[in-house]
Amino acid sequence: SQHDELEAKFFEERAALEAKYQKLYEPLYAK
Questions:
Q1: Fewer Cβ close by (within 10 Å): the C or N end of the chain?
Q2: Is the pLDDT of residue 16 over 90?
Q3: Structural domain boundaries of the chain?
Q4: Mean pLDDT score of the chain, rounded to an integer?
């Protein structure tokens, strides 16, 4: 269904965003 498709896309993009921001925040927490 379209809902499942949207949900899959959402989780995919959320995972990509989390990875992106994790890279940005790593230097801040490394101190």
A1: C
A2: yes
A3: 1-31
A4: 93
